[in-house]
Amino acid sequence: MNIAIIDKVMLNFFSELQNYFALIGRTLVRMFDRPFYYREFVIQFDKLGFSSLFICILSGLFTGMVMALQSLIQLKPYAATSYVGGMVAITMVKELGPVLASLMVAGRVGSAITAELGTMVVTEQVDAMRVEGTDIVKRLVVPRLKAMLLALPLLTVMVDAISLLGGYIMASGYGINPIMYITGIPQFMVFQDLIEGLVKPVVFGFLIAMTGCYVGLNTRGGAEGVGASAKQAVVLSSVLILVTDFFLTKIFVAFRG
C-alpha cells in the first residue's frame, strides 16, 4: 500500500514537472513572435515593478542599516570600521540584495499573478479566450514574463543602492565620513560581483513569473482554489529562489576560480 502511494506521488510530481517545463518551452518560443501585446506588457510592468517599489525600498533601507550596524560591532575592536562600506556593498550586491528583492516580489507579485490567472480560469475567461482562438501563452504568460525580467533587476539595483544609503546613515553615527565609506567599497568588490548581482535577479524573476503563471493556469476549485494556488505559488517561488541561489553562487565561484 505504501509503495502504491509513493508511486502515485512520484508520478504526479514528474507529470507536474513535465507540464511546467512544457509551459516554459512554449513561452520561450512565443516571446519573439507577433503580436507582442505592448499595452499588456506596460500594464504588467506597472503592476509588477512600480507597485513593488515601496516595499523593496523599505526592505533595502533597514537591511542596509542592520548590516552596517552588525559590521561596525564586529570591526570596531580591530579599528577597521572604515571597511564597513565595502562589507555592506559586497553582502548586498552579491547575495542579500537579489535574494531579498526576489522574496519580496515573490510574496507580493507572485501571488498576485497566480490569483489573477486563477480567477480567470475558474470564471472560464481563459476558456472563452481559447474558443476565440487566442493563444493563452502568448496573451497571458509572455507579457508577465517580459515585465518581470525587466522589473526585478531594476528593483534589485534600487534595493542595493538604498541599502548602501542605509548603511551610511548607520555608519555616520560612528564617525565614518562619506569619502571613507565610499572608498571602502572597491576594496571588497570586483566587476564580476556586479554581474553576479544582476544575473541572479533575472533568473529569479523568470522563476517567479513562470511559477505564478503555471500555478494560476492550473487552478481548480473556485475561490478556495484560487487562495490555495496563490499560497502554493509563493511557497514554490521562495523555495526555488533559495535553491537556485545556491547553485548560481557555486557556478560563479567556479568561474572565478
Quick overview:
With 257 residues, the protein is mainly alpha-helical. It has 9 helices and no strands.
Task: Write up this protein.
This protein is an all-alpha fold and 257 residues long. It has one domain (36-256). 83% of the residues lie in helices and 0% in strands. It has nine helices and no strands. The longest helix has 39 residues, at 84-122. It is elongated, with a radius of gyration of 21 Å. The model has no long low-confidence stretch (mean pLDDT 85).
User: Class by helix and strand content?
Assistant: mainly alpha
Strand content bin: under 5%
Please give the alpha-carbon distance between the first and last residues. 50 Å
Structural Rg? 21 Å
Could you list the spans in which at least 5 consecutive residues all have pLDDT below 50?
Answer: none
**What percent of residues adopt helix (DSSP H or I)?**
over 70%
Total discrete domains: 1
Order of helices and strands: HHHHHHHHH
Describe the largest sheet. none
- Can you give the mean pLDDT? 85
Globular, elongated, flat, extended or rod-shaped: what is the shape?
elongated
Number of DSSP helical runs: 9
